Amino acid sequence: MERRRSFPDVLAGGVFVLIGGAFAVGSLGYELGSPLRMGPGAFPLLVGAIVAALGLAIVIKGLIAGEVISFGPIPWRAVAAIVLAVLFFGFTVRGLGFVPTSAVTALLTTLASSRVRPLMAVAVAAGLTVAGTLIFVVGLQLRIPLWGPWLGF
Amino acid sequence: MELLDNLALGFSTALLVQNVLYCFVGVLLGTAVGVLPGIGPTATVAMLLPITFSFEPVTALIMLAGIYYGAQYGGSTTAILINLPGESSAAVTALDGHEMARQGRAGPALAAAAIGSFIAGTVATVALAVAAPPLARVALQFGPAEYFSLVLLGLIVSIALARGSTLKALAMIALGVLLGTVGQDIYTGTPRFVFDQRELYGGIDFVSVAVGMFGVAEILRNLENEQTRTAVITKVKNLWPTREDRRRIIGPILRGTGLGAALGVLPGGGHVLASFTSYAVEKRISKRRQEFGRGAIEGVAGPESANNAAAQTSFIPLLTLGLPAHPVMALMVGAFIVHGITPGPNVITEEPELFWGLIASMWIGNVLLVLLNLPLIGLWVRMLRIPYQVLFPMIILFAAIGTYSLGFNAYDVYAIVFFGVLGYILIKCGCEPAPLLLGFVLGPLVEENLRRALIISRGDASVFVTRPISAVLLALAVAALAVAVLPAIRRRREVVFTEEE
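Predict the joint structure of the above. Result:
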């Protein structure tokens, strides 16, 4: 295997350093305690430091002898559509109710594919809304109102 | 005979109408997601977990287990018919299985896989019934120090077996453990890393982590380059293997079963390793080595038996030690806890009906799988025609609904987005998601036992090396780490994984 500088390695390592570091710094705000009675901050500090250290090792390894991984394209459209769809669901399900939220979420999700045609998107969204309502609300008795208070019901 | 009594108890539980029904639902769903590329058992179990909360515990676990081993089964169908492994362990099956399908022998290939899986499943279920009770008795002696070392060992062994960079896998485990600390501290009740959001006090739900890392991230991967699935699906006929075929598959099935049953116990990708090893063994000892890769039925029967046997025996560490060997098992640990049962050595004595019922249900599930797969193969073939543009919105929508129904908490839904994007970035950088989930589920156990052990030893950290069982477990963990890191062994490991391109 050919080894050299690797962007994915540096990126992954960076993510680990960032999250590990953030947790480690954050845990300093909690009581650390003693080995006999470890406070709430001790364990996250320890693990956060380990994550950051491993991340640093990955960055260094990535700069001198990284793994060759093809990073590939990023489907920005899909990322945006799916992130929006799921956030929309979490944000509105209580207010709009199950049916409108599911329909919009499904419709937004179908837009993630670059090959989608409008008619098909609507058909899929409608079908999934019906299926979801039947399975989760009718079949499994999930206690989510079908139409929410925001709609004036 | 104690074993027979226990099995009788198990079957009387597993044969209850609702248990057989949900076992059937489980293996049916498992087969379906195993067949469909792009959605795996982990995401499915995560999505369905909230639904099972209202079931009896034993029924819930029977169904979840059914999804897991059903998926191992279904994965081989896709591998053979369209050369796309539905599950990672079916990758080897595609080598010779798809070659057989191209020669018009898809029927015997599918039959060999089904028969092999059934025999392996039966033998491995017996192995599970025999091996689990003594192991649980040993584990009952464990104190916090031993448990800490055991969990650490489990986490480290799981990366020694995984593919890819050891360093990254270690970092993923640690990251999982770290994310598991969000929420109220178990001893003092101090809320940690919650940013004053009351909804986060209970911590991040592991269902959100699993759905994000295995569902959303996987979908984003698949949407990178969309292509219509090349459906060169041949009509499957002549299912029954010829006498020559039957003679040729007996040996591989038995060897695969043995290998799989042994390797399945190891945490991490035991079933993947088992199928790869079985293929390598069959190829080495075969008199027809040149046929491998060109449609040798041994290359289908062996690995398929191995991965199914491993799928069954990977329940041993879960049921006796509470250690999950696979991300799906990690989710099952969560299911146990939701139902108020601590997975571990106590299950067998405190919940004998659940323990033996689950084991008996696996055998029933295997019978159902044979019935489902061979006659209904046409149905599965047709399912492969469902376009991905329909499939992925369904997964996203149902994932959102499922996680929301966990506790009617919008933060659980937002967490999917966070873990989906994080998982996508990390997977793109060559990190495996499974270690993170294992770390996330086991992290609180590590912290709890570490702190408890230190309290008992009055702050003396040497307790982990002075108690003999703990010391042995830690030594094994160090050895496993050495195995994973040492270049010479690494290279051999890669050989096993990349054997036969």
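Chain A has two domains: 7-65, 76-151.
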